[in-house]
């Protein structure tokens, strides 16, 4: 892992722009900068070019664990939150084991084609949902919101000003929230296995395989995200999956971490980032919500990034 604020790419500001210009993540993603194509990091990042880190008035660091906002956000991680993550992880993996055992019991050879399609559809759905949730938490809401602010929005604000903090989180802190989100569908699946007839379970087995694949990839999304910020000590099999873009690659995810963090939100596999960017999906949603509510996208995110005390 890298020391705080010393990432080889994620979290560093974009290369210095011309006077009066501000680099935009969407420009890089859409290929109007030095991007070389879908899912490819900008050329300067590919070649390891080290950009100057901007410093706000007062001389404090703009990025990393020493940033004033990052320190304040990290201190909001509470014992109650830690307990919720522990309970979520234990329940989630217990239900995963129970459901996986029952799925294997009802699988038949004739299910193979539909299972393959279901698993692929589950991965695609997980990637889209990771983007939707990531976009929502990055773009809207506030850390001051009751319950959800400190529990769920806080990590997103911290991540943009201290991107390598996630590499210092243990398994529980990294995956607790994703495990929490899968508890209801996992419990529903377990209920079916203990209450439905064998005939009904046989008929619905391909659908349950789709749901199970979706749950597994949602559960693993933040672990995959953590790996995309980790530049030392990764297992070879993880690097292989990243290099073949089976899971989110490190270079691909750097595009999101160009301020103002407005593109490439999908963080499970990243497969949907380029097509969603080409059709302007996130920008369209932002325009609709801003028009209806008057709220400015990423206003709270920018507020935390600009803290110097």
TrEMBL record:
Location of the Lipid desaturase domain: 124-300
Residues that span the membrane, as ranges: 86-107, 114-137
Biased composition (Low complexity): 1-11, 29-42
Swiss-Prot/TrEMBL keywords: Membrane, Transmembrane, Transmembrane helix
Record-level GO cellular component terms: endoplasmic reticulum membrane
Compartment(s): Membrane
Organism: Cairina moschata
Family, per entry: Belongs to the fatty acid desaturase CarF family.
Entry's Gene Ontology molecular function annotations: plasmanylethanolamine desaturase activity
InterPro entries hit by this protein: Lipid_desat, Plasmalogen_desaturase
Major place of residence: membrane
Any one Gene Ontology BP term: ether lipid biosynthetic process
PANTHER family the UniProt entry points to: PLASMANYLETHANOLAMINE DESATURASE 1, TRANSMEMBRANE PROTEIN 189
Topological relation to the membrane, as annotated: Multi-pass membrane protein
Transmembrane listed as a keyword: yes
Name of this protein: Lipid desaturase domain-containing protein
Region Disordered: start-end pairs: 1-65
